[in-house]
Amino acid sequence: MKLYSIFSLARNALNYHKDWPRAWRSPEPRPEYDVVIIGAGGHGLATAYYLAKEHKVTNVAVLEKGWLGGGNTGRNTTIIRSNYLQDESMAIYELSRKLYEDLSQELNFNTMFSPRGLLMLCQTEHELRAMKRTNHANRLAGIEARMIDTAEVKRLVPIINDSPNARYPILGAYYQPRGGTGRHDAVAWGYARGADSRGVDIIQNCEVFKIIRDDDRVTGVETSRGTIRAKKVAVVTAGNTSPLMQSAGVNMPLESVCLQALVSEPIKPVIDVVVMANTVHGYISQSDKGELVIGGGADAYNNYSQKGTLPALEHTITALVETFPIISRLRTMRMWGGIVDMTGDRSPIIGKTDVKGLYVNCGWGTGGFKAIPGSGFVFADTIANDRPHPIAAPFGLDRFLEGRLIDESVAAAVAH
Ligand SMILES: Cc1cc2nc3c(=O)[nH]c(=O)nc-3n(C[C@H](O)[C@H](O)[C@H](O)COP(=O)(O)OP(=O)(O)OC[C@H]3O[C@@H](n4cnc5c(N)ncnc54)[C@H](O)[C@@H]3O)c2cc1C
After folding, report:
1. CA distances in angstroms from 265 to 186, 188, 260, 291, listed in the order given
2. Residue nearest to atom 50 of ligand 1 (CA)
3. Is the CB of 41 under 6 A from ligand 1?
4. C or N: which end of the chain has fewer Cβ atoms within 10 Å?
5. Among 39, 44, 37, which residue's Cα sits nearest to residue 372?
């Protein structure tokens, strides 16, 4: 891999930037691999990267039906935080947040991690109590966080409506100073480049139709580019996981729904933190280009359409307008949707299955961008050693059989 640096930038400037090498290859699929990963979203690519880097497993293919990073990874609103309630969740999300801190250096690719601070508004007494509880749990787990009062919220977010007469007045907020955002595409591209340079084949435009088993063991996959044999197959396909796993005879406790977001026209800087308003269901941050990035709750029905709809948009904007009056004056520039995969307890599934050699990583629902580095790290370890990494172990499929659920429906109320 050619290093990106100030020197390579200067060298390439002399040639009018015509000689930059491609960031990754486009290889033809080989007939057989040690590991086939289905899905080149952030989680699949990070898994491939850590398999190659940490475990020296390089005979790996990542198969992607579209283009890499074109699923939810390229459609999300890029919020990074680790303020979940349960110990198991805090462990994986905080591991991930810490990996984000140095990810640009690790990948030699600017992932634009911006720990600008994250606020979760408390707009009812109930929410204030719930966030205090989360704050205590986070601090006990060593996560830097604190509760702040209305005056400090106003200082951090001058555009907020702090009137005590608002329908949902600001009673305070939970504050995670090292929460923030990153550049979603860059995370996918950085992991892709790092994995490719270590020998991983990333094969785009290659849809997997079926997972092939021989009795109780996985043997490969049928794809739009022919059959590919594999000793191990890892399914990392977010909202498309259920049909694919069914082809291997495994039913997943998942539902797929559309989650939507939008950006406004670009404006001068007005907000330099991330604000989530869970009671009214909406959240807001400002991108480096100046657009306000706005998202809300998931659709109430199952769906595979990857499209935004006007009623959902209207609902989110209506919810936010009273809290941020200036957004009523803005024009919407783009809106879109992604198909997210939700479990009943709103926690992910990471681990082995009853089929030997078949692994699954899914159920990140509306909040898996923040988890990409940590998830890839523990999933690669799980695949390489054929046993769950200790941080992944609680998230196995067996928790649904044993009733050992990891309930994050509160922390994940607007789970981004
Ligand atoms: C609007 C929106 C806002 C969000 N906001 C946030 C946020 O602010 N913070 C946060 O942490 N999370 C957020 N999320 C959630 C986050 O985007 C996802 O949890 C995360 O990107 C999942 O990554 P992934 O790699 O598992 O899935 P994806 O990125 O969806 O990757 C899966 C890949 O598998 C491919 N695939 C599917 N089926 C097949 C097949 N049969 N053969 C080959 N390839 C296949 C797909 O094309 C896709 O590229 C948001 C999601 C949406 C939609």
Report:
1. 22, 25, 17, 5
2. 76
3. yes
4. N
5. 44
What tens digit of pLDDT does each residue of 327-360 get?
999 999 999 999 999 999 999 999 999 999 999 9
Predicted structure pTM score = 0.97
Query: What's the confidence (pLDDT) of residue 319?
Result: 86
CB of 66 closer than 6 angstroms to any ligand 1 atom: yes
Token pair of 362 as six digits: 């899914």
Among 82, 225, 369, 377, residue to substitute to test ligand 1 (most atoms within 8 Å of Cβ) = 369
| pLDDT band with cut points at 50, 70 and 90 for residue 305 | confident
Residue 326, both tokens: 């200036």
Closest CA to 292 of 317, 318, 312: 317
Ligand 1 centroid–CA 72 distance in Å is 3
375 lines ligand 1 (CB under 6 A): no
State in Å: Cα 160 to ligand 1 middle: 31
**Strand runs (DSSP E) across 76-235, as ranges?**
79-80, 118-122, 146-148, 172-176, 180-181, 201-203, 208-214, 217-223, 226-235
Asked if pLDDT for residue 281 goes beyond 90, the answer is: no
Burial of 35 (0-12, 13-18, 19+ CB in 10 A): buried
Pocket test for ligand 1, best of 72, 223, 307 (most atoms within 8 A of CB): 72
Cβ proximity of 127 and 276 under 8 Å: no
| d(CA 334, ligand 1 centre) in Å | 19
